Amino acid sequence: MNKPSTGSPRRHTTDMKESMALTVEDPACIQVVGLGQACVDYLGRVPFFPEEDQKVELTELRTKCGGPASSALVALAAFGVRTSFLGAVSDDPFGREIRRNLLSKRVDLRGLKVTPGFTSQFAFIAVSRRDGRRTIFWHRGSVPHLLAEDVDMSSFPGCKILHMDGLMVEACAEAARQAHGRGITVVMDAGTMREGSRELVSLVDILIASRNFADPLVGPNAPVEKALEALKGLGPAQVIITMGREGSVGLGPDGPIFQPAFPVDAVDTTGAGDVYHGGYIYGMLQGWDMARCMRFGAAAAAVKCRDFGAQTDSLTLDAVLDLLGG
Fold first, then answer.
1. Can you say whether residue 235 is alpha, beta or left, with left for phi > 0 and alpha for psi between -120 and 50 degrees?
2. For the domain with range 16-324, which CATH number is right: 3.40.1190.20, 3.40.640.10, 3.30.930.10, 3.10.20.440?
């Protein structure tokens, strides 16, 4: 465990007044619980990406909030779904902004662990002016991660889906086990294969992974079909691999499904995958089949790419439905 920069660590938030401030929903109404990362993003637009030991002037600089699990929840909240976030922040300026932002987006925070005296996660993201592609430099902060004993899924009696991004492996595994015991479907956003990731995937019902997540299993140049089979062999009933502007490919009970990306003039691709997850989960809540969930997720990601940052006010249910043609 990392030590705080000043003073000694104190217990996480227990003050009743502050705890109530983190609660925006009746727990029985919460349908999706997300466990994972939330951070503050500094986004700078660049005319080109410089080579090492060179410099380039930023043409635009904005501050937004992001993080895989939290951005998926923000997207779901924008679609009218009640959500709650389980994560860890400190009482530093980044942590305060993360909390303020999520509450403003109507994401419940009763399960947020606030540990004073540390630093919260943040990132700097260079966004290409030419095509909206982004390069991310991030720091997880020094705040202690959630542990298994911090997780209590019984706090959410109406929860239907647990969505996790896999960074805090111990807490994710415990949440997944509790979720299965309560009949809750487990979805995982898999970005990078880490220690413990394979075991975690075995607890997942639906795995939505980046293209390189399967590289340690099949090699970096293996066909996507081979990657899908390898990931499905770890246990999930459904596996989807997202490939940016090349679309997404899924493998479920009825075989492979290809979903092309929706063509848009991309301003910023930051958070597109996170929003895809939110869109896919929205489809699950509607009872849609895998292909329709993938199509809605792709449309949601395309709408997000029209704006700056992972969490945008322009992402609405109406905007996604308009792109889909009503």
1. left
2. 3.40.1190.20
